[in-house]
Amino acid sequence: MxxxxxxxxxxxxxxxTRIPEIGSADLVIINGDLTNFGGTDDAKRVLDxxxxxxxxxxxxxxxxxxxxxNDYLEDLGINLHKQARLLRHRLCLIGIGGSNKTPFATPSxxxxxxxxxxxxxxxxxxxxxxxLTEPVEKIKIPTIFVSHTPPFGTAVDRLASGTHVGSSxxxxxxxxxxxxxxxxxxxxxxxxxxxxxxxxxxxxxxxxKGGWVEITVNDTTVQATLxxxx
Length: 230
Known about the structure:
single chain, alpha/beta, Purple Acid Phosphatase, chain A, domain 2, 4 helices, 23% helix, Metallo-depent_PP-like, Serine/threonine protein phosphatase, Calcineurin-like_PHP
């Protein structure tokens, strides 16, 4: 299974057509910030472009998308926020959109308590979809955690000033559950990679700057390659 993960599109969706072999990918994940303070109409324009390149898409809203974008993705049946998706009984995706609080009062921000509750809701949904009583991370099906906001205190949540602005709730989930991979975004200047325990973290940054992640799933193995140009 080959998956392309992108985020922080901010209306510049045409760049997606330059991702090599995007049309043959099994899935495209959009990790939030489709728009710039936009709603359904802007999100539709972005999705139309991405889905022309590849119609197999799952997406979630970011903090710069209005809450109605979340509703629109839900209506389309492609929403990841607060949800778990079991793909071909080989891979589980857990999604969390929006962001923790910022100084800018962007449209879709949440407290750390709210984010933690969203993550727990998705995690419990994952357990139910796999029909297990065991923790998801103990089974053979790997989990990819798709979080618009990065985990706190890492190389991928740092502003140009050096200040860490990621989510403590996201950090706690990764520390406890150790998913096979975390895809994040939100902090454009922190594009890059890091690790929390056994979990690789990838922040591709803005799509218009060339950032995207190529994920390959073979049996129970997940491999991610961060690309910084298209």
